[in-house]
Write a structure and sequence with these properties.
The structure holds three protein chains of three kinds. By secondary structure, chain B is an all-alpha fold. In chain B, 77% of the residues lie in helices and 0% in strands. In chain B, helix 1 packs across helix 13, helix 7 packs antiparallel against helix 10 and helix 12 runs antiparallel to helix 13. Chain C has a five-stranded mixed sheet. Chain C has a four-stranded mixed sheet with strand order 8-11-7-12. In chain C, strand 4 and strand 5 form a beta hairpin. The model of chain C has no long low-confidence stretch (mean pLDDT 88). Classes of the chains: A mainly alpha, B mainly alpha, C alpha/beta.
Chain lengths: 293, 270, 423
């Protein structure tokens, strides 16, 4: 009986999550492109060999990592600040909390158009601002050194509220008397943060981090609409490269290889990030010991 | 630091870009290029007219997104509710494993699935059909939905269901009359989150729908981004951005409670 | 009981209405064939009048609909391909850029047209428009306009246009020094297909060749290939082109030239009509010529768009009707006069009335004589992508021309090898 309850959901999940992975693995060992008449022909490890030597894939991977790392890092810092701000009680707090959610609710492509204008050279507001501030015209979207920063900024803007909410939930589980105890011993806000907040928030930070890193790795909508991958392919992400291989170059075999490799790499990176953060932020019991000693 | 100052900074950062789009959407093309133009030449409604009178008209995209959103949410709930319930009643080891698997699936960057899903659409002729989109969307939101609803079921005292069993209610009746009404806040949260996800989803909608009459909002926006023949099309883009944002802003304002509680409870127990 | 009767009546009337409307619909459907064509935004707009005329002439018989797609060529192709990959495309015909033909034909998506357009028909086309319509012996595309890359110059600032790359640089610098213009030369430098078009003209202009499809010889890192890239980069370094040209497409270059900021512009024929509009600051002071090059090597990249019919369409004959109408002499005259699209029929080019009204037509004809197409291969999207990527690196000073072109050549080679075209 129970099985019937689980079965439909399980089936759908298998088809949509597990099936593709097997399909990609299989396809990656075949040549399937416009040159083969869109039929899959086994070609051994030729796709994988090509991937190893594909400088463009490794460049895109690096760019995606850079994007994900900087974006998630900035987000967490900002989200923590926002969560701390929203944790206190003040008039209108709920209204502000709702308003800060708006960026997260908007579809990426909708606001990406807006960002194209905001960063536009020479007519956008950012350009006017930099000219006024004496920095001069930065040609943000046309300069390979700056374009990726624009994408990071747009991504941080959109996803920080989500992380902030998760951290806020965590903050609200911390009993107030812990802070009292530290203050009684003469500790200031910074010590509160280090000894109590961060350790107790660790599971939430981990959750937000893992979630965001995985999503940031798959960045697609933002890049496609904001920069199209340019300039000089400096903002191109691996998801975009996989997409183009399939839909522009009609090379499905190679696209599958890219996806498969990326999936394996993302999993590895998530595991590492998780382990890294375990070490970085001590658990509450360890830090409590530090306070009491 | 002065709290008022921080709060205003926060609001400026969150709402500034969108408000700038609102401002831009009412500026004439000339005003966009020459920012210090006189008052008479500055304001215009033509951008909105252009966007609303385009072919197909803008409201069509909103309707399409709405159809997809509602059908995905319904399908997701129909599948997730039983599954969430059943998750508590399978052997413990299996349950922990399943939960881990679900978390893994929830973290998965689904954009990577686009190719396999495209092949599925081709095989089963699911392309260019709005209702068909609800299948992948429901599937992609299953992990989160199951986890959230499972938490809600866990919170119910077991005596309630035992009493109902004693009274002779069948499983379906217990579901209908006791369990589902009791977890309705969680269901509402899950529903709104799934709806938001379906509304904002891009890669799969991009590959499954090419008919301009059936586009959902995000894909339509991307296409608008590529269609302008003007060198400074940003007035029209801004109007499209504003129009595209309005439904979502409304959704957030109206459903703020379920959204916030859904996200935070997911975090607390996840 | 009364309720039951009431409901029965409602059901009965609904049933009747349903049958009637179905019958009506069926009657309609039997007589009117709806044919839909997917076109990029500018063409969808430009052909509106023609479509109306067609529908009036064929009322009750064929109804032609134009679906408007994105402006940018690549985005347009992405859209068409995703429709075709899904199996059933929601349109019967597609207005296709010349570079897509090989890929679409190889994928088996196009209906061969030799049975509809004979040799005699092909002979009516001007020579420059005959390229890019066939693949592996079959005719797949019937051209609607014959775009070619042109060098626009300001007639009020110079007596004659420059003929070699060095000339262009000198003239630009002189004019910029005299503060007559902000910039010398604006062109499409963004990382997209437009950049490939610009580059083709330069590499051919310096005497080289991008890719010879018969023997897969890659000329990107040869001396002319590197010279071409270096010359383009030099334009930015020397301040003849603005730095933001690395983000320019056709609209941005046109905008800059139109307000009088630049002395030279590279663009397609449509820009001519735009520059003669009342809001143009350079109206009446614009001349066109073919791109600067080493003597005897002047080249214009072919950019023509043509109509194709998709395999699997159930309205092939009706679609061909529409194709013929949209490419007829009258249609071409209309498109040329109103939108500046260069015609494809030789007779239109020779039309004395037209030449008198718009002498610029003769210039278009001249440019068509040196028109060259980009490599015709199903792998074109990939090799163009690789080229523009490296060019963009060079233009933004991330690589030297030698480095960039070497990478471009080796990447192109890799693509050919992976596809089994070369060992």
């Amino acid at each position: 009986m129970i099985v019937f309850l689980l079965l439909p959901a399980l089936l759908l999940l298998l088809i949509v999550f597990v099936g593709p992975l097997f399909r990609y693995a299989w396809l990656s060992f075949h040549a399937n492109s416009v040159m083969t008449g869109l039929i899959a022909i086994p070609n051994g490890g030729a796709n994988w060999l090509r991937l190893m030597q594909d400088q463009r894939y490794w460049q895109d991977l690096g760019q995606t990592l850079r994007f994900a790392g900087v974006s998630v890092g900035l987000e967490l810092i900002l989200a923590l600040s926002i969560a701390l701000l929203l944790d206190q009680r003040w008039r209108g707090r709920d209204v502000v909390r709702t308003l800060t959610l708006i960026p997260w609710a908007l579809p990426t492509t909708v606001m990406a158009l807006g960002w194209r204008w905001i960063f536009n050279t020479p007519y956008g507001p950012v350009d006017h601002f930099t000219k006024l501030a004496g920095i001069g015209s930065l040609n943000i979207l046309g300069d390979p050194n700056f374009a990726w920063m624009a994408t990071v900024w747009a991504d941080v803007w959109k996803t920080t509220p989500f992380a902030a909410l998760i951290l806020l939930a965590g903050l609200q589980t911390i009993p107030a008397d812990l802070y009292e105890a530290v203050r009684l011993e003469g500790g200031n806000s910074l010590i509160c943060l280090r000894r109590i907040t961060l350790p107790l928030l660790r599971p939430y930070i981990l959750l937000a981090l893992l979630f965001r890193i995985a999503q940031a790795f798959g960045v697609f909508d933002l890049i496609q609409v904001l920069t199209g991958g340019g300039p000089a392919s400096s903002t191109e992400s691996i998801a975009l490269y996989a997409y183009w291989n399939a839909l522009r170059f009609l090379d499905f075999g190679y696209s599958s290889t890219i996806i498969m490799a990326s999936f394996m790499l993302i999993s590895l990176i998530c595991v590492f990030a998780w382990m890294f953060l375990q070490i970085l932020i001590p658990t509450h019991s360890k830090s409590r010991g530090a306070i009491e000693s | 630091m002065n709290r008022r100052f921080l709060i205003s900074l926060l609001l400026l950062w969150s709402l500034g870009p969108l408000l700038w789009q609102v401002y831009t959407s009412f500026c004439s093309d000339q005003a966009l290029i020459q920012p210090f133009i006189s008052h008479d030449h500055r304001w215009t409604l033509t951008h909105y007219q252009n966007v609303l009178n385009a072919n197909p008209p803008f409201w069509r995209y909103l309707v399409n997104s709405f159809i997809v959103g509602v059908s995905s949410t319904l399908l997701c709930l129909v599948l997730a509710l039983p599954a969430a319930y059943a998750l508590n009643r399978i052997p413990r080891r299996l349950s922990i494993l399943s939960r881990l698997a679900l978390v893994g699936a929830a973290l998965f960057p689904y954009v990577l699935l686009f190719l396999a899903l495209l092949e599925l659409a081709r095989e089963f002729n699911l392309g260019n059909q709005l209702l068909a989109l609800s299948l992948p969307y429901a599937a992609l939101s299953q992990p989160l939905a199951i986890l959230l609803l499972n938490n809600a079921f866990n919170d119910l005292p077991p005596e309630l269901e035992d009493a109902a069993k004693l009274e002779g209610l069948s499983l379906f009746q217990r579901f209908r009359w006791i369990l589902i009404p009791l977890i309705s806040p969680a269901t509402a949260s899950t529903a709104i989150l799934v709806f938001l996800f379906s509304w904002n989803e891009y890669p799969i909608a991009l590959t499954w729908i090419s008919d301009s009459n059936k586009l959902t909002l995000p894909v339509a926006m991307a296409r608008i981004a590529g269609s302008s023949i003007y060198s400074v099309p940003y007035g029209a883009y801004a109007a499209a951005t504003v129009l595209g944002s309005i439904p979502l802003v409304l959704l957030v304002l109206i459903f703020q409670k379920p959204i916030v509680s859904g996200l935070t409870s997911g975090a607390v127990k996840g | 009981m009364r309720e039951n009767q009431f409901f029965r009546r409602i059901l009965a009337s609904l049933f009747v209405v349903l049958i009637c409307s179905a019958g009506f619909g069926l009657a309609q459907a039997k007589t009117v064939e709806t044919v839909s064509f997917l076109m990029a935004a500018p063409f969808a707009d430009a052909t509106q009048d023609l479509v109306q005329q067609f529908n009036q002439e064929h009322r009750g018989d064929i109804k032609l609909q134009v679906i408007k797609g994105p402006l940018e060529t690549e985005a347009m192709s992405d859209l068409a391909i995703s429709s075709l990959l899904l199996g059933k495309a929601p349109f019967d015909g597609l207005l296709m850029d010349v570079t897509w033909l090989a890929k679409y034909a190889e994928a088996g998506w196009l209906e061969p047209l030799e049975n509809y357009f004979s040799e005699a028909d092909v002979d009516t086309l001007v020579v420059g428009a005959r390229a890019g319509n066939s693949y592996k012996g079959h005719l797949y595309r019937w051209p609607m306009n014959s775009d070619m890359g042109l060098l626009y110059y300001r007639t009020d600032l110079m007596q004659r246009p420059p003929e070699t790359p060095d000339d262009l640089v000198q003239v630009s610098q002189a004019l910029q020094n005299e503060k007559k213009v902000d910039w010398g030369y604006v062109w499409q430098g963004r990382q997209y297909e437009g950049l490939s078009c610009v580059y083709l003209e330069m590499i051919d202009g310096f005497g080289g060749d991008w890719l010879q499809t018969n023997d897969n010889q890659i000329g990107l890192n040869s001396k002319p290939g590197v010279e071409a890239a270096a010359w383009l980069q030099g334009l930015i370094d020397q301040g003849i082109s603005p730095r933001s040209v690395t983000n320019y497409g056709e609209p941005e270059a046109l905008q800059s030239f139109k307000v009088g900021d630049a002395a030279f512009m590279r663009n397609w024929p449509y820009a001519w009509a735009e520059l003669q509009k009342s809001d143009s600051a350079v109206k009446g002071n614009v001349g066109i010529t073919t791109m600067v090059a080493n003597p005897g090597h002047s080249t214009a990249t072919i950019g023509s768009w043509g109509l194709t019919v998709l395999k699997g369409s159930s309205h092939v004959d009706a679609s061909i009707e529409a194709v013929r109408f949209l490419t007829s002499e009258t249609a071409q005259k209309q498109l040329f006069l109103k939108y500046g699209y260069s015609p494809t029929q030789q007779r239109v080019f020779d039309d004395p009335q037209l030449l008198q009204d718009k002498p610029i037509l003769a210039e278009f004809g001249r440019a068509l004589k040196v028109a060259k197409s980009r490599p015709e291969t199903p792998l074109y999207a990939q090799i163009s992508d690789v080229l523009t990527r490296q060019l963009s690196s060079i233009l933004t000073d991330k690589k030297t021309p030698e480095e960039g072109m070497n990478v471009a050549a080796s990447n192109t080679n890799q693509i050919l090898i992976s596809a089994g075209e070369q060992s």
